[in-house]
Design goal:
By secondary structure, this protein is mostly helical. The chain contains 17 helices and no strands. Among the domains are: 92 residues, Orthogonal Bundle (Death Domain, Fas); 90 residues, Death Domain, Fas (Orthogonal Bundle). Helix 1 crosses helix 7 and helix 2 packs across helix 5. The longest helix has 16 residues. It is elongated. GO terms for molecular function: death domain binding; protease binding.
Length: 282
């Protein structure tokens, strides 16, 4: 993706995280080969819509030059106000003239180009050679200037840093989002790893999960129709909906529905729970 397109997305970050729903556009991103199914799982693994948009944008920024145009196509129908703002910003940035790099003589280095030319006085044949370090005269520091080392020390001692701009904050946050799925896996004790998960364990898990359970169901290879059925069967009890979903997963996996398999699937999804309770046999 071009640098100017990255800047546009970062400047519109607040509007995108407020208005956009990733599920509305991800089919188009897959169809145009900008996203793959692993990207979709990473986005849907986030628990709230804002985090899903942040994850989507962090992935989008790493894609090729077509990504911005495909993203505009994906929001044109459902989000015309966002499409209009982004397209206008793109047209304005395209009209801005590119600043050419300053030319310099081919035989002049970058550091030499910043220094005035001084003719070196040739030593007299009878004049003894003087070591170079003794002939160099140190220039006194100019008023209002300081060395880089001194500036760093003073900045550290003062304990203050220049405030980040909104764009820098967004850049840092998106960079951190790319590391959000890296974590240490919980070690499942070998004695329970291959044990088939029990109804008691699934019931306990159902009591700990929240509104993210619908996305978890998709992660566990259940369908949207399955989710709708669980909700219709238990319209007033969320825990019962979640328990029905977990039991359906257990029935479909059969003997492969083990404690170890469940824990690893939950970790891959990004459930922020202490999963140790699933390893307790009593």
């Amino acid at each position: 993706m071009e640098e100017r397109h990255k800047k546009i997305l970062k400047k519109k970050y607040k509007d995108l995280t407020r208005d956009l729903r990733p599920d509305d556009i991800m089919d188009h991103l897959i169809q145009e080969d900008v996203f793959d199914f692993n990207d979709i799982e990473l986005v849907r693994a986030q628990k709230v819509n804002q985090l899903q948009v942040e994850k989507l944008l962090s992935i989008l920024l790493t894609r090729g030059p077509r990504a911005f145009g495909v993203f505009l196509e994906s929001i044109e129908e459902r989000y015309p106000w966002l499409h209009k703002d982004l397209k206008k910003a793109d047209e304005e940035s395209a009209r801005q003239p590119q600043q050419p790099a300053p030319k310099q003589d081919e035989n002049t280095s970058t550091s030499d180009a910043r220094q005035p030319f001084q003719e070196t006085e040739k030593p007299s044949p009878n004049q003894p050679l003087i070591p170079e370090e003794q002939t160099c005269v140190k220039r006194p520091p100019q008023p209002g200037t300081q060395t880089r080392e001194k500036a760093v020390v003073q900045g550290t001692a003062g304990g203050s840093e220049p405030p980040l701009t909104d764009e820098e904050k967004v850049t840092r946050k998106m960079g951190n989002m790319q590391l959000s799925n890296q974590h240490t896996r919980f070690e499942v004790p070998p004695k329970v790893d291959s044990n088939r998960v029990t109804e008691k364990q699934l019931n306990a898990l159902a009591g700990k999960l929240g509104h993210e359970w619908e996305n978890l169901a998709i992660h566990l290879d259940l369908s949207k129709a399955d989710v709708d059925r669980f909700k219709a069967d238990n319209p007033y009890n969320t825990r019962s909906q979640i328990f029905s979903m977990l039991m359906a997963w257990r029935a479909r996996r059969g003997g492969a529905a083990t404690v170890g398999t469940l824990i690893r699937s939950l970790e891959d999804f990004g459930v922020g729970l202490d999963l140790k309770f699933l390893t307790q046999t009593s």
